[in-house]
Design a protein that fits this description.
By secondary structure, the chain is mainly alpha-helical. It has a single domain, classed as ABC transporter involved in vitamin B12 uptake, BtuC. The protein is built from 13 helices and two strands; from the N terminus they run αααααβαααααβααα.
């Protein structure tokens, strides 16, 4: 049962990545690999500021600003230098490795004895339940903000940029600015996941972001399956399904560990699971004549 409780809490921590991938890949159709670096950046900034005894109201804005800067840089490289979005993300992700290592000063920052957002607030006596309610409130606030943003004129212009860039440009919208802003928001959300997971697991590590984009991608693909199945058009329901996809993804990994699969094979299991959920809806079982 502990596996599944941890999976639920981690799923809530990873909700920022899921929402970030949803914005970059589903709204803008941009495969943003910056995620791997901005997630670690969020954890690194969190770890450094916590060790310097900075309060949460300073740490969280700093984390979001750092992630947004990384995303905006990818957007600028892509739109202004006309470099492929995938390559732009890889370039920024690679640069962030050195930046994160410089910020941390070493490869791992233990945060066991430092105060965190989960220890500063005591809503209930049980630590796990306390963490759950804090995360649930945090995720709810972030989701409401993103949902409201996507329903505004600015959000509609963002969605239109991904659906038909030529049309929205003809209406006078600066699509380059929309992409830069969208990637900044997406990576700010990703950095928030790094902020949460570093405090949840009690350390920040330089390798914590390796392959983390697959977590967000898997969450979005799970949500997309339900969206297509039920033909959902509501932005609010889509966001809730993305959050649900993040939790389901972690439950699958928890089930894998609970049945005795070696933890060293977890990345392989993750890759295979994402491959399955990507490929199964696309397979045709009708034989060609």
């Amino acid at each position: 049962m502990d596996f599944y409780l941890t999976a639920l809490l981690q799923g809530l921590c990873f909700s920022g990545i899921a929402l970030g991938i949803y914005i970059s890949m589903k709204i803008f159709n941009i495969p943003d690999i910056t995620t791997d670096g901005s997630y670690t950046l969020g954890g690194a900034v969190t770890g450094v500021l916590l060790l310097h005894n900075q309060p949460s109201y300073i740490i969280l804005p700093a984390v979001m600003l750092a992630g947004a800067t990384a995303g905006a840089l990818t957007g600028i490289i892509h739109t202004k230098l006309k470099i492929n979005a995938l390559l732009a993300g890889i370039l920024v992700m690679t640069a962030l490795y050195s930046i994160n290592l410089t910020l941390m000063g070493r490869s791992n920052l233990p945060l066991i004895n430092t105060a965190s957002v989960f220890t500063l607030l005591h809503l209930v006596s049980d630590p796990n339940q306390n963490t759950f309610w804090i995360l649930l409130f945090f995720v709810a606030v972030v989701t409401l903000i993103i949902g409201y943003l996507l329903k505004t004129d600015f959000g509609i212009a963002m969605r239109a940029t991904g659906n038909s860039e030529t049309m929205i440009r003809a209406l006078g919208v600066n699509t380059d600015r929309m992409k830069i802003t969208g990637l900044a928001i997406a990576n700010a959300l990703t950095a928030v996941s790094g902020y949460l997971i570093a405090q949840f697991q009690g350390f920040a590590d330089i390798s914590m972001g390796i392959g983390i984009v697959i977590v967000g991608l898997g969450s979005v693909i799970i949500a997309e399956a339900f969206i297509n199945w039920f033909r959902i058009t509501s932005v609010w329901i889509s966001l809730l399904l993305v959050l649900g996809g993040a939790v389901i993804f972690q439950f699958v990994l928890a089930f894998t560990l609970s049945i005795g699969i070696d933890a060293t094979l977890l990345k392989l299991v993750t890759a295979v699971f994402v491959l399955l959920i990507v490929s199964l809806p696309r397979l045709s079982f009708n034989r060609s004549i």
